[in-house]
Write a structure and sequence with these properties.
475 residues, alpha+beta, Anthranilate synthase, 13-stranded antiparallel sheet, twelve-stranded antiparallel sheet, globular
């Protein structure tokens, strides 16, 4: 079926999200421009980093919610419960509605939502050690039949659909509604109440760090991504927090999800991720792992010194290469033999608050495989577990006090056309039950220094700390 494209006035995805927030499960995938080492990017480079499109969806035709061992699907006023592989359930909703890809349209319907880090337990058996005090679903996916796509390169905005579920007249009504500025209802002002708590203060982090070093010396692993969780009590409208967060911390793979679990739990996800996990476009596969971090500085000379130190760091380059090798192996499971190539190593990338080393690995999806097969085969991403992956995940479960939840999972879309783009859910806050949580971590290897690694977690959390400070209620 031909794609229907209805023009809308050019505006950021954040505006269009406010136009559909009254509908169920509104979600925004938003791109933000970042700097290359030369502090500027060609259009092609920015596009490849995800800084071209914003995507807005709402009112899914189906809601897929997984908590082991069950996946519950809400659709057409029906509720079904399955014990199948959750990835297979999402695929069953996509494959009967396959469409041809349309150039310049990244997403025109399909699956959009999150795959939490703990969904990995549905792939590999894991010990049950860390506390689970945030009862979020392990997978939450909407099946959407229309999307608002903002193309920042062409400065164009369109409502798009293959009308697999929605009728063309209903799409026209939606289009006319979107053209009318919506009177925004008053929402409670967002505010932060109380102080931030850490689930690992410096002493606890140090103890966990030395246990990682012992595991490395014993040959259990080569690298472990060790993270701490920050939490603070909040109240009010989560969108206001996201809107401020996006001003503080632009990134290529940002997202806002305002959802519920089909029962009585409502929550919001605010992601400022700099890292692409997996992209599939016409069977071409790409992943961009990040390893290596230095803080940004207002002083240009000091900032450049930090960037050069990172670019020349043997340790950070070795960490990055370790994860590149892991991802080459992961995507090679479903890619054509000989197609997996490393197209860039240790590219210096400047973000709002940190410098990173980014590498690029590409391949070609083999015949008979779907984008969800690739996602399942690589999940969770190696850049935020360690190596070897399974043992690293077991050690993380032992040493981190709380389950990670959405942190280090993935947020993104898989279209009816087989395209996929997903981030690694880092720099990501979750607001649930009047608590806002945020994780920050880093890779620990044999020659890591504890004080530097702990400081790195604070550097990565710096924009979150600024966000909290801006909304803090005076005492």
């Amino acid at each position: 079926m031909a794609l229907i494209q209805l023009d809308l006035p050019y505006a950021e995805g954040a505006y269009w999200l406010t136009q559909v927030r009254h509908l169920p499960w509104p979600m925004l995938l938003e791109s933000g421009r970042v700097e290359t080492a030369a502090q500027q990017s060609s259009v092609d480079e920015e596009v490849s980093l995800g800084a071209r499109f914003d995507i807005v969806v709402a009112d899914p035709v189906a809601k897929i919610i997984h908590r082991r061992p069950y996946t519950v699907v809400h659709s057409h006023h029906d509720v079904e419960r399955f014990e199948d592989d959750p990835f297979a359930i999402v695929k069953r909703w996509l494959q009967p509605h396959q469409v041809a890809r349309v150039a310049e349209v990244p997403f025109a319907g399909g699956a959009l939502g999150y795959f939490s880090y703990d969904l990995g337990r549905s792939i590999e058996p894991m010990p049950e050690l860390a506390a689970q005090d945030m009862p979020l679903p392990e997978l939450l996916i909407g099946i959407y039949d229309w999307a608002i796509v903002v193309d920042h390169h062409l400065r164009r905005c369109t409502l798009v659909s293959h009308t697999r579920f929605i009728t063309q007249p209903a799409l026209t009504v939606l289009h006319q509604t979107l053209l009318q500025p919506r009177e925004q209802s008053e929402t409670p002002a967002f505010s932060v109440v109380g102080d931030i708590s850490h689930n690992m203060h410096k002493a606890a982090y140090t103890a966990a760090f030395h246990k990682v070093k012992n595991y490395i010396r014993a040959g259990d692993c080569y690298q472990i991504n060790l993270a701490q969780r920050l939490a603070v009590q909040v109240s009010g409208d989560a969108w206001q927090a996201y809107d401020q967060f996006r001003q503080l911390s632009k990134a290529p793979f940002m997202a806002y999800l305002q959802v519920d679990d089909g029962q009585d739990l409502s929550f919001s996800v605010l992601s400022m991720s700099p890292e692409r996990f997996l992209q599939v476009t016409e069977n071409k596969v790409e992943t961009r792992p990040i390893k290596g971090t230095r803080p940004r500085h207002a002083d240009a000379i000091r900032d450049q010194q930090e960037a050069e130190a990172l670019a020349n760091s043997i340790k950070d380059r070795a960490e990055n290469l370790m994860i590149v090798d892991l991802l080459r192996n992961d995507i090679g499971k479903v890619c054509e033999i000989g197609s997996v190539k490393v197209d860039a190593l240790f590219r210096l990338q400047r973000f709002t608050n940190v410098h990173h080393l980014v590498s690029i690995v590409r391949g070609v999806l083999a015949n008979g495989y779907h984008a969800l097969d690739l996602l399942r085969g690589c999940f969770p991403g190696g850049s935020i577990t360690g190596a070897p992956k399974l043992r690293a995940m077991e050690i993380i479960e032992e040493l981190e006090p709380h389950r990670r939840g959405i942190y280090c999972g993935s947020i993104g879309y898989i279209g009816f056309d087989g395209s996929m783009d997903t981030n690694i859910a880092i720099r990501t806050a979750v607001i649930c039950k009047q608590t806002m949580t945020f994780y920050a971590g880093g890779g620990v290897v044999a020659d890591s220094d504890c004080d530097k690694e702990y400081q790195e977690t604070l550097d990565k959390a710096s924009q979150f700390l600024k966000l909290v400070a801006q909304f803090k209620t005076p005492t």
